[in-house]
Structure formats: structure tokens, C-alpha cells
Amino acid sequence: MTAGIDGKVIVLTGASSGIGAATARLLAAKGARLMIGARGQERLSHIQNEITAAGGICQSQIVDVSDAASVSALVAAALSAYGQVDVLINNAGVMPISMLDQLRVAEWDAMVDINLKGVLYGVAAVLPIFRAQKSGHIITTASTAAHKTVAGQSVYSATKFAVRAFCEGLRQEAGRDFRVTVISPGMTQTAFASHITDPAMRERLEKAGTDIAISPDALARAMAFAIEQPDDVDVGEIIVRPTAQP
Ligand SMILES: NC(=O)c1ccc[n+]([C@@H]2O[C@H](COP(=O)([O-])OP(=O)(O)OC[C@H]3O[C@@H](n4cnc5c(N)ncnc54)[C@H](OP(=O)(O)O)[C@@H]3O)[C@@H](O)[C@H]2O)c1
């Protein structure tokens, strides 16, 4: 794998909005060849068209990261389009947070299926490729909730703690063959809070978002920093949060 970003083939999930969309725009501007995925066709096509209109190289495919076959198909599409895969960014995630007493069990399932199992499926899809190439880079979006748990965020936080633990094991098993990075955002201005179904919790998060949240561009720059390091430099983890975040 060559150092830098120019020419690298990057598969990016959750690319239709927020941190993923900002990352796709920045990496394309730096010369990456992208395969972007998300569930909703309309927003995904919008980002793809925006990038290609600006001169970037970007293809897209619908993906549901909670379905292993769907994630494999996304990676296969990148291989078939570009002949190689250099970086996988496991960025798709959901945060329908609520107090446990509300027993929103279907939402707990969704967080485990998307935030945790989605990452495992991404790794399963690229691992044989990276072993064969003896190069590659797996970047996963965790959260400051992967470092600190607060009431109302137990299940979300549990999925993100698990992702960090998993990525540390993956890093150790990777050896010299590929790099493993975790990017942990704090409060970031995205569509995230709008998916919270508990009205009080949504209002609280939306207010915090308005008061202190940072631009998703800050996370995109962190992703780019990790990718553009020399091959023998593995940026293990970056936490990027608002200065004002407690
Ligand atoms: N915003 C924050 O304050 C914050 C803080 C810490 C961590 N994070 C993490 O940052 C990552 C990105 O979130 P964001 O803030 O940018 O939120 P966002 O604006 O809601 O974007 C989430 C993206 O993930 C996609 N997605 C959701 N479920 C998916 C699935 N099952 N399969 C494929 N794609 C799926 C969404 O598109 P579709 O719905 O169309 O699939 C969208 O493109 C997440 O992992 C999140 O946990 C965010």
C-alpha cells in the first residue's frame, strides 16, 4: 500500500450524512477512489453526485451493515470497480438512546446489530483481502461514549466500548499486515439526535448539539490524518470533541 490518500480505494459506510458524508467529501478531494454506502438511496446518491460533480471519484451502493452479506457485497463492489481495497471505514451507527426502564428493546437490538455487529461484518469482509495484500487499514468510528458511560446511554455506550475492545484485539492480531484505527467523536453536528424516539432525551441531545457540537469536518480531518501517515505508522485512536464538552 502506498502512503498518503491519493489513489487509495476507500470503502466508507454511513456515508450519506454527518461524519461519513464530510469524510467522503474530504477524502475524495484528496484523491481517494471511494465506494460509499448507506441504507437510503436518495441521500447517498446526492453525496455521490456532489463528489463526482466536484471532480472526485466515487461510486455508491446501498448497504445495511446489520446484514453480513450486504457488507460483503459493498466490499466486493469496490474490488470489482477499482481492483483493490486499501481502507475500510466502519462509520455507520445509530444512537436511539433512552433510560433502561423504558425497555425499548428493539432499539437496543438495533444498536447492537448496527454499531457492533456491523463493525464485525465489515472486518469479516476485508480481512482476507488485507491478509492476501499484506496491507490495508480498518478505521472505525466509536465515540466519547466508548470511554465514559452516562445514564440514558447505557446500551449505546456498551456497543461503543465493545467496538474499542474489539479493535484493540484486531490491532494486535493484525501484526504487520494492516493498520487499525479508532476515531472517537464527541458531540458533533449531525442528524444523530433526530433519530432518538424518546422526546425528552431527543430534546436534551438536540440542545447540547446546538450549544456545543463541532462540525463533522473536524472528524473528517482526523480520518484523513490517520490514513495519510506512512505505512509503518498506525494511529491507534483519536478522540475529537468540542472544547466545551464535559
Ligand atoms: N454525532 C455525534 O455527536 C456522534 C458522537 C459520537 C459518535 N458518533 C458516531 O459517528 C458515526 C456517524 O454518525 P453521525 O453522527 O454522522 O450520524 P448521522 O448523520 O445520523 O449518519 C449516520 C449514517 O449511518 C447510516 N446508517 C445508519 N444505519 C445504517 C445501517 N444499518 N447500514 C448502513 N448505514 C447505516 C446513515 O444512513 P441511512 O440511515 O440511510 O442508512 C447515515 O449515513 C456513528 O457511528 C456514531 O455512533 C457520532
From TrEMBL:
Keyword Oxidoreductase recorded: yes
InterPro entries: KR_dom, NAD(P)-bd_dom_sf, Sc_DH/Rdtase_CS, SDR_fam
Pfam family of the protein (one): adh_short
Keywords: Oxidoreductase
Keyword Lipid biosynthesis applies: no
Signal peptide: none
Ketoreductase domain boundaries: 8-190
Family as reported in the entry's similarity comment: Belongs to the short-chain dehydrogenases/reductases (SDR) family.
Name of the protein in question: Oxidoreductase
Protein source organism: Thalassospira marina
